[in-house]
Amino acid sequence: MKKLWLPLIAINFLTFNCKKPQHEFLNYSRQQLIDNSAQWESNAGERSLLAYRSFYGLDTIPDVAMEFRRIGAAGEYFVTTVESTKALADRRQNCRTIVFFHGYLDHSMLAIEFIRHFSQLGFDIVLADLPGHGLSKGEPGAIDDFSSYKQAIEAVLEFAGEKFGQPVVAVGHSTGAAGLIEYIRCGGDIPEKYVFLAPLVKVYMMEYAVAAVDATDSFLDYIPTRRGKSTSDKAMKAFMQIDSLGVRKIPLDWMKAAQRWLDDVTADGNFYHEQVLILQGEKDKTVDYKFNMDFLQKRFTNAEIIMLPEADHCLHYEREEIRTKVFEQIED
Q1: Hey, how many other C-beta atoms are within 10 angstroms of the C-beta on 130?
Q2: The domain containing residue 115 runs over which residues?
Q3: How confident is the model at residue 218 (pLDDT cuts 50, 70, 90)?
């Protein structure tokens, strides 16, 4: 049965002439939440945490214990852990810790249905906001170099291994998958398996994007973007219009960093033998999936690629029948 928390929030906001007060969470700025989140690990009743849990539907997930904490030398990364409280007899056999890394402009709480699905199977889950996203520190959407994503992923995977002490499956969506690719290229070896969801190697129509950056670089710092265009789930589209943690403009420096990384990774002639599952939608107009699939199949010798003809880019929050297929593939 389709979950109703997203439509209810979105309808409250989008109904014209709506007189109802907005959700308390929307009263907090991102910086206020970053500052407050330093207290969330020790104070489960902190008011902004309760608003955060409510707004993103975390309180609707049964049989879990959640923790929220900052990790890294300067507490720069925000991490959520979701520990299944199901009895061992009720868990799926051979459960692993799943570590999830979101895509560009998103944040970890948009993976709410991913959390719901895998926690109910008995998996323990770790989710992290990438630098410049969600409640991790950094200018929204900005990055100097893709190595910063790799550094964040490395810190989170080490934390997950220490926290749960069991084999790790690393799941990365889009830029999260790019960070995992960079982690593998740099010799990272904590996960026993990787899952790339609509992975970023090359942006869709990258040549035109780079030309636009070059033409506007002298007088523009950002490119505006439209939230919710990469999913066919109508409720999620509506929710993303009110989600205050979503990034709404792309720094030109990010596009430059993406081009530099593309040049670097395609010039790398090495082959990688990790176990990798790649899921890709054929309606994706965010990444150049034909280029990406060809490149990854050649460089990752043990990669299995599954194409989804009806899916767009954001596979983990596509409409229910599509994301269910995605989740079932990850389970196997």
Answers
A1: 28
A2: 64-331
A3: low
